[in-house]
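Hi all, long-time lurker, first post. I run a small reading group and we've been trying to get comfortable going from sequence to structure in the token notation. Rather than ask abstract questions, I figured I'd post a concrete chain and ask someone more experienced to write out its structure so we can walk through it together at our next meeting. Sequence below, copied exactly:
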Amino acid sequence: MMSPIDDGAVARFLAALDDDRREGFMNYAENTYSVIEIWLYASVLGYEDSFTALERWVNKHYRKLNRRQLLLGEVCKLEADVDFLRQQVAADLVKPDAAASRIAHLSKELRGHLVEIDRMTKSSDRRGLILAGADAVMRSLRQIFKGNDEVIAALDAAFESVWAQLDNEK
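-- Answer (accepted) --
Happy to help. Here is the structure in token form:
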């Protein structure tokens, strides 16, 4: 793998972090599926540049599987399998009693995928709203106390603590 420090905004951000925070951030980026969560965590650590730059960096160095998209693809395939099996029954290529158990099995698998997609979506939406709210508060407080180094240092420590707590609630 190439060096995770790239040119540009993300490189400046990573270079400004101490070794422990940089290693922690890169570990978080590697093990977190959501680029939005990675961006929010970066903002806790002081990243102030664009989401797009960070997203490109993450996609270049830590490719993410889109589990929701994969499940949606499987749902389409399962629906097609059920339709194909029904067509075979209609064409008398498969006996109805043999097809019934197979259709029941495919339908059960299909429902399971739909439930998982729904769970992932609701969980992601809820978590995203909470993290976005926390990020907005953090940015506002940094802006309000800009120039007061003592307060900013205390806020940064508090932000990291809050982030760690939110991250543990996964």
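A couple of things your group might point at:
The two ends are 28 Å apart (CA to CA).
Helices lie at 9-16, 19-31, 35-44, 51-61, 67-90, 96-144, 149-168.
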